[in-house]
Write a structure and sequence with these properties.
The complex is a heterodimer of chains A (250) and B (321). With 250 residues, chain A is an all-alpha fold. Chain A has 13 helices and no strands. Classes of the chains: A mainly alpha (250), B alpha/beta (321).
C-alpha cells in the first residue's frame, strides 16, 4: 500500500513537474468549457424546461469525447516512458510487487484526471447561482464521466505497457476507445441479438444512462469489471519481461 | 551469500546463458568478466530479480530470487548497465523515492540518504535536477541508490562504463571501501578493473562460464603468449607460409599491406624468443626485412585471445594478395 502511494506520488510529480499536466488540463478545460457554454446557450434558446435531457445529457455526452481525446495522452507515458528511458529495469530490482507498481501508476493517472475534472464544475456552479437546478442528475452525470474516464485510464495504461513508444501507446489507446465508440453504430449490418450484445459491452452506450441521470448497478459493475480486466491485462503484459527480457539482451 | 546453480536463460531460440554456476562468499568482491554480449547482464538481472532464469536457481543472502523474490530483492542493491534515473527529480527527491521503495524506515531515511550522498560525493548536488547532471554524477547517484538501505549484496553492472579516468579511479576506490561491509559482484569487460578491485574473477563468454580464479592466477594463466611484429618486402602468401613453418610459431596474421611491403603479426609460444629465427628465415629467402620487434600484449588482448581460442573460431590467417 505504501509502495503504491510512493509510485503514485512519483507519477504525479512527473506530470506536474513538466508542462504536460498544464497543457493537457488546459486542453481538457477548453473543450469541456466550450461544450458547456454551447449547450447552455442552446438550452436557453430552445431547450425548454427539462434540464436532465435538455442540458446535462448533451453536456456529459460531449464530455466523454473530451475524456477520450485527452486521457490517452495522459496514460501514454505510464510504462512506455520508463521502458524507453530504461528506468523500468531498476524498478524491478526494488522489493515491490508488480501489482503495487500497476496500482500506483493507475492511481497517479486517476488523480490527475480528477485534477482536470474538478475545474469543470465552475461553469455549472455559476449557472447554479442563477438557477437552482436539481443536483441529482448533474452529480450522476459526473459519476458517469468519472467511471468512464477510469475505464479509459485502465485501457490506456495497458496499451502503454505494451510498447516503449509513447506515440504508439496513445494511438493504440485511441484505436481501442474508438472501436468501443462506433461498435454499435451500424444496426443494419448485424442481427438484433448481436447488437444487443454489443450494446452491453459498449463503453459509450453504458455511459448514456448516467448522462440521462440514471444510475444502474449493472452499469457500475460493468465499468468496475472493465477496469479490473485491463489492470489484469497490464499485469500480464508486464510479466512478459520474464521471457522476453528488458531492453537489449546481453 | 550469492549462489547460482546451473542458471540458464533463453529468449526464444537465443540462449543468453547456459549452465552458469558459481558461489560468492560473504564479504567477497567478485568480478564478472567477459566481452560484450557474453551474458554478464543477463546473469546479473537474474540475481537482481528483474526476470527469472529459464532453468536453474539462484539464491541471494539465502533467499531464492524467484520463490522468495521480495526478500531477495530487499537484500540487494542493484546498479544497471544502462543507468537511467528519473530526470525530473532532484538527487535528494530521487533518493527519498528510492528509500521508500526499499522500505527504509521513515526515521532513518534522512540519515541514510545523507550517508549515501556523502559516500558517493553528490551532497553538493542534492538539490540539482538529475536531468541537468553530467554522466559522471548520474553514475554516482546510480551507485548511491544501490548503496541505499545498506544491502548485504551489491550487484553492479559495469559501474565504471563511460566515466573519465579520474572518475573510474574514484568508483573503484568506492568499491574497495565496501570490502567487509557488503558482498559485491561487479561486471566489467576491462581487465585492470578486476585486478584493481576484485578478490576473485568469473570469466564468461557466449553464455558459458570459462574460468573462476583470483586475478593474480588469471594473470599468470593469461600471459602464455607473446607476439612479434615484422615488416618485410615480400609476397604475402609466401611470407606467411615461410614464417608459419618456424618451430614455435602459433599463429601468423598479415595486418597490413602497402604495395609489396607486408606487416605480419606472429604469435609464438611464450618461452621462446623467435626473433632471430624469423629474421634468418626472411633474409634467407632474399626478402628485405624492414622491421622486427616484440609486441607487448595488454591484458585485454591476451584475454580476448584466450576467449577466442576457447571458442575455436578459426582466426583468419591469410589475406588475399
Amino acid at each position: 500500500m505504501k509502495t503504491t502511494l510512493t509510485i503514485c506520488k512519483r507519477e504525479l510529480r512527473s506530470y506536474f513537474g513538466s508542462y504536460i499536466a498544464y497543457v493537457l488540463t488546459a486542453l481538457f478545460l477548453l473543450l469541456t468549457g466550450g461544450f458547456f457554454y454551447t449547450w447552455l446557450r442552446y438550452f436557453i434558446l430552445f431547450g425548454g424546461y427539462v434540464l436532465p435531457s435538455g442540458l446535462w445529457q448533451q453536456v456529459f455526452l460531449d464530455m466523454r469525447y473530451c475524456a477520450m481525446i485527452v486521457l490517452p495522452l495522459v496514460t501514454m507515458r505510464l510504462f512506455a516512458e520508463e521502458k524507453k528511458l530504461g528506468t523500468i529495469e531498476l524498478l524491478w530490482t526494488y522489493p515491490v510487487r508488480d501489482v503495487e507498481v500497476v496500482l500506483g501508476k493507475f492511481l497517479g493517472a486517476w488523480l490527475f484526471y480528477l485534477f482536470m475534472l474538478v475545474p469543470t464544475v465552475v461553469g455549472p456552479l455559476v449557472f447554479y447561482a442563477f438557477y437552482r437546478f436539481d443536483l441529482g442528475p448533474f452529480l450522476t452525470g459526473y459519476l458517469g464521466v468519472l467511471l468512464l474516464g477510469t475505464a479509459f485510464i485502465a485501457c490506456g495504461m495497458f496499451v502503454s505497457s505494451l510498447t516503449e513508444n509513447q506515440v504508439v501507446s496513445a494511438m493504440g489507446t485511441y484505436g481501442i476507445l474508438i472501436t468501443f465508440w462506433y461498435i454499435t453504430w451500424n444496426e443494419s449490418v448485424a442481427s438484433v441479438a448481436v447488437i444487443e450484445a454489443l450494446l452491453k459491452i459498449s463503453l459509450f452506450d453504458r455511459f448514456l444512462n448516467f448522462a440521462r441521470g440514471v444510475v444502474d448497478t449493472q452499469d457500475i459493475v460493468f465499468f468496475v469489471l472493465f477496469v479490473l480486466y485491463f489492470l489484469f491485462l497490464t499485469l500480464a503484459s508486464l510479466d512478459a519481461r520474464k521471457w522476453r527480457g528488458v531492453g537489449a539482451a546481453s | 551469500m550469492i549462489e547460482a546453480h546451473r542458471l540458464t536463460k533463453r529468449f526464444g531460440f537465443f540462449t543468453a546463458i547456459a549452465e552458469v554456476s558459481f558461489r560468492v562468499d560473504e564479504g567477497e568482491i567478485v568480478g564478472f568478466l567477459g566481452p560484450n554480449g557474453a551474458g554478464k547482464s543477463t546473469t546479473m538481472r537474474i540475481l537482481g530479480g528483474v526476470f527469472p532464469p529459464t532453468s536453474g536457481y539462484a539464491r541471494v543472502a539465502g533467499h531464492d530470487v524467484v520463490l522468495d523474490s521480495l526478500r531477495a530483492r530487499q537484500a540487494i542493491g542493484y546498479f544497471p548497465e544502462r543507468i537511467a534515473l528519473y530526470t525530473d527529480m532532484t538527487v535528494r527527491e530521487y533518493l527519498g523515492y528510492v528509500a521508500d521503495m526499499k522500505h527504509v524506515p521513515a526515521k532513518q531515511q534522512k540519515r541514510e540518504i545523507e550517508r549515501v550522498m556523502d559516500r558517493c560525493a553528490v551532497t553538493h548536488m542534492a538539490h540539482r535536477l538529475i536531468g541537468t547532471l553530467s554522466k559522471g554524477y548520474r553514475q554516482r547517484v546510480g551507485i548511491a541508490q544501490a548503496l541505499l538501505g545498506q544491502p548485504k549484496v551489491l550487484i553492479l553492472d559495469e559501474p565504471t562504463a563511460g566515466l573519465d579516468p579520474e572518475q573510474v579511479t574514484e568508483v573503484r576506490k568506492l568499491i574497495r571501501e565496501l570490502r567487509g561491509h557488503s558482498t559485491v559482484i561487479l561486471s566489467t569487460h576491462i581487465l585492470p578493473e578486476v585486478e584493481a578491485t576484485c578478490d576473485r574473477v568469473l570469466i564468461i563468454n557466449k553464455g558459458r562460464l570459462l574460468a573462476v580464479d583470483t586475478p593474480s592466477n588469471l594473470n599468470r594463466r593469461l600471459r602464455q603468449l607473446s607476439q612479434i611484429h615484422i615488416e618485410a618486402q615480400a609476397p604475402v602468401v609466401s611470407l606467411l607460409e615461410a614464417v608459419r613453418q618456424i618451430d614455435g610459431v602459433v599463429r601468423v596474421e598479415a595486418t597490413h599491406t602497402d604495395g609489396n611491403v607486408v606487416s605480419v603479426l606472429v604469435s609464438t609460444e611464450p618461452t621462446k624468443d623467435l626473433r632471430s629465427a624469423i629474421a634468418e628465415r626472411v633474409v634467407r629467402q632474399g626478402w628485405p626485412l624492414l622491421e622486427i620487434r616484440p609486441v607487448q600484449l595488454s591484458l585485454e588482448e591476451i584475454f580476448l585471445e584466450l576467449v577466442h581460442r576457447r571458442d575455436q573460431v578459426p582466426a583468419s590467417q591469410e589475406v588475399s594478395p
